[in-house]
Amino acid sequence: MAPENQDTTRATSGEEVVPPHTPSVMNTGPIDLGHIEVLQILNEHGEVDSGLDPHLSDEILLKVHRAMVLTRAFDQRMLTMQRQGRMGTFAPNIGQEACIIGQVIPLTNDDWFAPSYRSFGAQIVRGWPMEQLMRLWAGFHDGFPPPSHVNDLPFSIVVGSHVLPAVGIGMGMNYKKKNDCIVVNFGDGASSQGAVSEALNFAAVYKAPVVFVCENNGWAISTPIQKQTMNEVLATRGTSHGIPSIRVDGNDILAMICTTQEAVQRAKNGEGPTFIEAMTYRMSLHTTADDPKVYRDESEVEPWHCRCPIKRFETYLKNKQLLTEESIKELLESCEQEVIEARDKFYSMPAADPCEIFDYLYESIPDELIDQREEYLQRLRNKGVNDE
Amino acid sequence: MSKLTMVEALSLAMDQEMERDENVCLLGEDIGINGGVFRATKDLQQKHGESRVMDTPLAECGIVGTAVGMAIYGVRPVVEIQFSGFTMQAFDQIEQNMARLHNRTRGKYTISMVLRTPYGGGIRAVEHHSESREAYWAHTPGLKVVIPSGPRNARALLVAAIREDNPIVFYEPKSVYRAFREEVPQEPEMMEIGKADIVKEGSDITLISYGAMMRPCKEAVEDLADDHNINVELIDLLTISPMDTATLTTSVQKTGRCVIVHEGHRTCGVASEIIARLNESVFEYLEAPIKRITGFDIPFPYFQVEEHFLPESEEIVQAIKETIDWQ
Question: Which pick of A28, A49, B191, B314 has the fewest CB atoms within 10 Å?
Answer without folding.
Answer: A28
